[in-house]
Amino acid sequence: MKIVPTVTLPYTRDRIAASFIVTLNGIERNIPYNLFLSLFPRINSRNRTANVEASAAELEALSVIADISDPLSSRITYELSERHGGNFVVTHMSSGQQLVCLPGAFRRIAGVSNRAVSGTATLSATKLAEVGFIIEGGNNNDCNYQYANYA
Fold first, then answer.
1. Distance (Å, whole) CA 101 – CA 104
2. How far is it, in rounded angstroms, from Cα 32 to Cα 25?
3. Measuring CA to CA, which residue among 56, 31, 33, 47 is closest to residue 122?
4. What mean pLDDT comes out for the span 2-25?
5. pTM recorded for the entire structure
6. Cα dihedral sign for 127, 131, 132, 134?
7. SS3 for 24?
8. Are the C-beta atoms of 87 and 103 separated by less than 8 Å?
């Protein structure tokens, strides 16, 4: 019998997005529900957060799945704040950046409902730049710089 070294991998189940959230190489990634369960069929899928023992081969397969299924998206949280003039406070989960965005602009860019006042969303790098986040390689969206100069 061969002993295989394993790593404890914490995960969080996101029922709304039908995915599992895991941290791979320091980056929070979304893995589709059925693909995560195909790699780790022994887990109790009713637990919201738990740990699973993953071998090197399973971690490699998980990172390949993450690259294919979620190549350029990042998770954000948003909340309509009266303290900030009735604007959305938007937080980028991976980098910790936080900014305030006009409700109409944020809803148009992120595609959230007009009735939404708080929640989470997954946005592509282009959409993140459009909202105003500074992403790797710099922000090439010039319209955001003119507002930053007035701040």
1. 9
2. 18
3. 31
4. 80
5. 0.48
6. negative
7. strand
8. yes
